Amino acid sequence: MIIGYCKEGKVEEARDLFDEIQFKDDACWNAMLTGYAQSGRGEEALELHLQKLKIGLHPDNWTLVSVLMACSTLSLLKDGRQAHLLIIKHGFESNVSIYLVSWNTIVAAFSQHGLYGKAIAFFNQMRLSGFEPDGITFLSILSACARAGKVNESTDLFESMVNSYGISPTPEHYACLVDVLSRAGQLEKACKMIQEMPFKADFGIWGALLAAAGKWNDVVRVRSLMREHGVKKEKAYSWT
Fold first, then answer.
1. 26-35, 69-78, 120-129, 166-175: which range is least confident on average?
2. Stretch 23-35: mean pLDDT, rounded?
């Protein structure tokens, strides 16, 4: 019932029900933690997690997934790392899906904070530990590269994702590459990548190129390319 209330947006009612339960088992705690995390109430999820630890209850797989989800919504690097250590301490590293959530959450948080060095360090540590990154991992690390202006690293990672791990790139992956190439003034390469994509580029990808084109005084050419590809200007967005 707790999860049901949360899915309906009745988080307060779910908490009232949780508080009324005298003898709470792991399922009960995890239901409330998951409800908070999925409702975007990360701080309350972490507070509840601390309460669980204080009364001597050990976290299980689902507890840690919810905690990592909460850390991700709040971009709390310290708490994310602590949850990662708990996963190792309690022997959950054998569960690949839980482990990937842990790594991805921390890499994403570093990326969001523009901490390229730490993001790439965790990414490399993940691979050395024998766990393969997935598309989400690569999206986070490519975003970190784009923020840091790491052009060569971005292209190398993209090629590794496709050729070494067999991961099909999404529009978001391509957008990261277009962004970093455009910012570096490599507009020809960015345009070529857009034209060679296996799907039609959306305005978000063209927008990244257009924004950089303004810096490099090449707006007219990019606008012409956009028209050739049938890309229409969105409302409230200037092409000048």
1. 69-78
2. 85
* Tens of pLDDT, residues 74-99: 555 555 566 555 555 545 544 556 56
Q: What is the pLDDT of residue 237?
A: 42
Residue 186: which of 149, 220, 142 has the closest Cα?
A: 149
Q: Can you spell out the DSSP letters for 37-97?
A: HHTT-HHHHHHHHHHHHHTTPPP-HHHHHHHHHHHHHHT-HHHHHHHHHHHHHTTGGG-HH
**Tokens at 92, concatenated:** 């959950």
List the structure tokens of 38.
Answer: 């999925």
CA-wise closest residue to 65 among 30, 39, 40: 30
Task: Write the CB contacts of 154 (distance below 8 Å, at least 6 apart in sequence).
Answer: 142, 145, 146, 176, 177, 180, 181
Residues 39, 6 contacting (CB under 8 angstroms): yes
Closest CA to 51 of 74, 67, 69, 73: 67
3-state secondary structure of 149: coil
> With 60 as the cut, is the pLDDT of residue 73 above it?
no
Cβ(45)–Cβ(24) below 8 Å: no
Give the domain 1-94 fold: 1.25.40
Domain ranges for the chain? 1-94, 106-168, 171-240
Nearest by Cα to 15 from 24, 82, 89, 114: 24
Tell me the percentage of the chain whose pLDDT exceeds 90.
18
